[in-house]
Amino acid sequence: MNSRIVLQEVLARGIKTFGFDVASRRLLWRDRVAVLLYHDPKPETLDKHLTYVKTLCDVIPLSQVASQGNGRPRAAITFDDGAAGNADLLPVFIKHNVRPTIFLCSQLVGRPAVHWWLLPAAKQAGIERLKRLSNRERLAELEKYGSAECIAEDATGLTAVQLEQMRPFVDFQAHTRFHPILTRCDDSECEQEISVCKSEIESMLGISCEHFAYPNGNYTDREVRFVKDAGYKTARTCDLGWNDGRSDPYRLKTIVIDDDASLSWFAAQLTGIPVFLRYLRHARNLSGYSPQF
Length: 293
Fold this sequence. Notes:
Elements lengths: L2 H15 L2 H10 L3 E6 L4 H11 L4 E2 L14 E8 L8 H7 L4 E4 L15 H6 L1 H5 L3 H10 L15 H7 L4 E4 L12 H19 L5 E3 L7 H10 L3 E7 L11 E5 L6 H7 L3 H11 L10
Parallel strand pairs: 1-3, 1-8, 2-3, 3-4, 4-5, 6-7, 7-8
Helix pairs in contact: 1-11, 9-10
């Protein structure tokens, strides 16, 4: 067992021992909505998580995030990026009668494309460093390191067939076209990534695309304005917290869940404490806002 897992289990045990899990449900979660954020978990992990979370709360679609509660905590399940592995989760969604939202990058699914941070070039150049560059600089760096070397077999997004198979059971929504850091884009790039993504998803899947998720959780008032102008009804951040009818629909709060979280670590993450501590370490503030570039 590596040191990261040991530390997680120690913190999880402390959270449970001191009753912080129960306190968070009573004081913070209450009858509000926890929007859980995954990326690419294994089916067996998600199955355990959903089995557990359904003992604590009602699981609802993201579209009902502002609906009137019935006194019980609620949760909405979301996934970012549209990773190919999400297709393996379909039996889990059906088993638990859960309708998740998967936020798609419209140019990285349904075609032989690779999410940029999974490119060998990105790993060579340093993924976190690339995120902090302007969008033009990031693309130039990837080109310099040979980003065109990946072939069709390397595609990392959901295929057209998988999207069609999942469509009756999943809400597919927007996560930009190519997943740039929007705050590192110029006005034209930012607006195009937000608005064109919506029309591309609607055309590709024949659905109404009404919800958006900010890549990497990075946004400013500019991004919020573009999202509103594009006609979206909500936008999900990576800011820590719970939601109700009074929440800003274009700044929905989230609880980020580790894709490989053990059941005890998942229970700890539902309190928000691990994410709060991580944000505190990186952003050095007590707000619960995700670190911004």
